[in-house]
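Shape matters. Shown next:

___
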Amino acid sequence: MLSFFLPPVEQKLGDANHRHPLPIKENLLPHWDVPHKDRPGGGTSAICAANQIAPETSSSLVYAMLVGYYLPTFANFVVPTVESRRTYNAVWQLFPVVVPLLQAPLHRLVKTCFRSKNKTQQKEERKKSMRYARYAYGTFALLSGLTYLHARYSAPDHASFASAFLPGLRGHLEPVTSFSDGIARFLQYDEVISMASGFIWLTLKFKELKDAGVSFSWLKAVGGLVGTTVTLGPGASFALGWGWREEMMHKLVGDRQ
């Protein structure tokens, strides 16, 4: 995911933004594939079980995201000056590098905590994996949704919330008059590409479940994603969509064992 230092939204929304920071992508959950635990076996149930997220992976990801992604995000909302916001925004831009660097040692640390001398039975292991996956997607959805709502309802009255984040249909034809205007335009398209790639990834994951025999309505899935994107933002929508996919996969494995 490409990210850059970001002063441009202030340029687009004017002086009122000194009171209402609107960072362009703070409401987005980063779209990367979460590594899954490998397990031997065959058949649909074994494949789905192998795709369940290990507890140490989901737990360490939550901790790393809180420190490397959400902490700079919230700091950007509460610091009093524009210069301070730009500083925290610059720190936030590094999250694609910072979060994996934080997660690697946390993963090893948390993994030692989950170690047991007794062999854990497969069913109990699946329940534990699902419990921590719920903690992960629930935390991401809550924090991303609150950030989105704060940005939406603290925006200046005269400002268009959608136009600050999304380019117009003919925006690519408009001349770029300054460096900050060019960066703003780039980040708007980066926003669209990031959301689209994330939801395409999620759609492919749902298709995998459909091919494995899970019964669900595509209309319900698409409608749910669109509805939560409009009300809670794309970050919360992606987290909840990922969570729903994990829940259906967990149920499929349970029904076939």
